[in-house]
Amino acid sequence: MVNKKIMKKKLFALNFSLSFLLLIININPINTDGNHADANLFDIFRDGSLYFSWKIDSSSKKIEFHINANTTGWVGIGLSPEGKMANADMILCYMKSSVPNCTDRYASGNRVPELDTFLNENSRDDLENISGEIKDGRSIFHFTRKLITGDDLDYQIQQGKEINVIFSYRKDGNPDSENGIFNMNTKYGGEKFILYPNEGQNVKNDDFKNDNRTYKMSLKFNNYLLPVNDTVYSCMNYDITKMAAETTKLPYGTIYHAVAYEPIVDNSEFMHHIVMFSCDSNIQIQPEPYKCRALPRECTKIQFEWAPGSGIYQLPNEVGILWGVSENRNIILQYHYDNPKKKSGAIDSTFVNVYFTTKLRQYDAATTSLGYPTPFIKIPSNNKAYTIGDTCSEPCTKFMKGDINVFSVFLHGHNYLRKIRTEIIYANGTIDNTTMIENNYRFDHQKYIYFKNPIKITPKDKLLTYCTYDTSNSTDEVLGGDSSSEEMCFNFMSYYPRENGLTQCYGSLPIIIGCGAYNKFDRNSTISEIEISSNFLSTNFSQYIIIIYLIMLYIY
Q: Each residue of 522-555: b (16+ CB within 10 Å) or e?
């Protein structure tokens, strides 16, 4: 007798494979109010026991640190050249007679770090205590120091340089004095950070808000009751051309440039990611959220994406995303909620502010997705560093109509991902493997990486994307999928000019999956005058049969 669970699983796999095949066949080439996650907020031990964040004040050349630890005892952080306690610039915080006491120290080894002023008469305490308290069993400290102190015992925080930051705290007990600082029952760890990143392209310039030709439109889920499922995709469909006309009081069909996307996350416990998709044609407008694991084939071009830690997405001053033409006439706003404990009664009212302007910029932007196709991801259990990779090359890039300039990337995976990078192999043989990279990937801290000088990609160049996973804490094989317990491997690469590039580019196992190119259009055309055309990878029917066969072989 056939096991019903196995049969159900196989039927699901078959259905998924066929659905994926259909996707292949139809592939298309701020000052704000609300609940914002701190862009530099890290859950250091990934269990809520210690939160660390910082902020750079470039005008005063200072850095502000915030620490929130699950202890009433001391908390320490260190800036370490080698990721060890020895030779680390240490900061030790605890409450002393109800007064916050953060001190500047130096560790010569695995022992209590000494005060800088004790070790060197020319050194000084370069910290400024701002605030501190013990609240609900947690110690919270806020202090600041100069980026460059000039003190021989301090680590000089340089722009663009990665540094090891080490952490430790005593799990219980307030020492109230130097004598009880270091004893047993401590927790420690470390991470690599670029505390003072290089300035990207002018992505934080709010000048566009002061332009009377810039408008704001909010797309919102109102008091949405989340379904009781571990993974939920919910969507709303919008006619943004109509909404823009109502907002601006300008004629329907006016051409705009979207210049910034600002998510205001209401219920961060469940929000996994947000994606806005452009539609090539009219779709049914949905006034209420609906489940949407699969999207219509005409709505697969990515306009904007967000995940925890990424904050506002703002385009460079010379670039915008075109609205008011056929393929950006309607959009689908998709929210992915993650509810592994299947809690009931959860409500969410997350919304996205979209800033758009009638002052058209020089270039039209677009996004292409690179990476490893999710259905093929298969990561063995108990593996500290398992790497997969995929190539975007000539079978797809031949559809590019010219060179593109990449101004930002958004690297995405889930909780097992540790490193992700895209290498560029230029036609002349040179390799760039240091630009599109994240060697310390964290799901709760995903960021847009902006490039001050856009990266030029030609149709003859190759792009290789690699993802490295750590499954040492998993007893089961990890497969590709939508939920946080499964994995992905994506590089969402934003570029201009739009018409020269691709919507996606995969060259994965077992054969080329597919690629799609944008059509070129005239900004001065009206909606009715524009025809949508797409270039597809030429694949005959027999190759689709091979794809089905290989997918089924892979699954069974």
A: eeeeeeeeeeeebbbbebeeeeeeebeeebeeee
The DSSP 8-state label assigned to residue 480 in this structure reads: B
Report the C-alpha gap between 156 and 81 in whole angstroms.
Answer: 11
Give the three-state DSSP class for 237.
strand
**How far apart are alpha carbons 222 and 209 in whole angstroms?**
25
Cα–Cα distance for residue pair 277/298, rounded to 1 Å: 10
Structure tokens of 27? 């592939």
Residue 191 confidence (pLDDT): 80
The pairing of strands 319-323 and 363-364 is parallel
For residue 462, count CB atoms less than 10 angstroms from its CB and return exposed for 0-12, middle for 13-18, buried for 19 or more.
middle
- 18-30+201-555 belongs to CATH 2.60.120.230: yes
Whole-angstrom Cα distance, residue 273 to residue 269?
11
Domain boundaries, the chain: 18-30+201-555, 48-193
Q: Rounded to 5 degrees, what are φ and ψ at 18?
A: -65, -40
3-state helix, strand, coil in the chain (%, to 5): 15, 40, 45
What is the DSSP secondary structure assignment for residue 112, as one 8-state letter?
Answer: P
Higher-pLDDT residue of 207 and 550 is 207
336: helix, strand or coil = strand
Residue-wise DSSP of 191-243: EEE-SSPPP-SSTT--GGGGSTTEEEEEEE--SEE--SSSEEEEEEEEEHHHH
Summarised one tens digit per residue, pLDDT across range 285-308 is: 888 899 998 888 888 889 999 998
pLDDT value at residue 6? 43
Tell whether omega for the bond before 316 is within 30 degrees of 0, i.e. cis.
no
Give the separation between CA 365 and CA 315, rounded to whole angstroms: 9
Q: What tens digit of pLDDT does each residue of 404-462 get?
A: 999 999 999 999 999 999 999 999 999 998 889 988 888 887 888 888 889 999 999 99
CB-CB contact of 275 with 302 (8 Å) = yes
Six-digit token string for 391:
């190539």
Strands 330-338 and 163-170: unpaired
pTM of the model: 0.68
In angstroms, the CA 113 to CA 168 distance is 12
Residue owning tokens 């590709």: 480
CA-based nearest residue to 314, from 238, 358, 365: 365
Distant-in-sequence, close-in-space partners of 540: CB < 8 Å, separation ≥ 6: none
Domain 48-193 sits in CATH at: 2.60.40.1210
Which uninterrupted H or E stretch holds 548? Answer: helix 541-555
pLDDT digits (tens, 9 = 90+) for 229-273: 888 999 999 988 889 999 999 888 888 999 999 999 998 889 999
> Residue 110 belongs to what H/E stretch?
none
Bridge partner residues of 302 (DSSP): 277
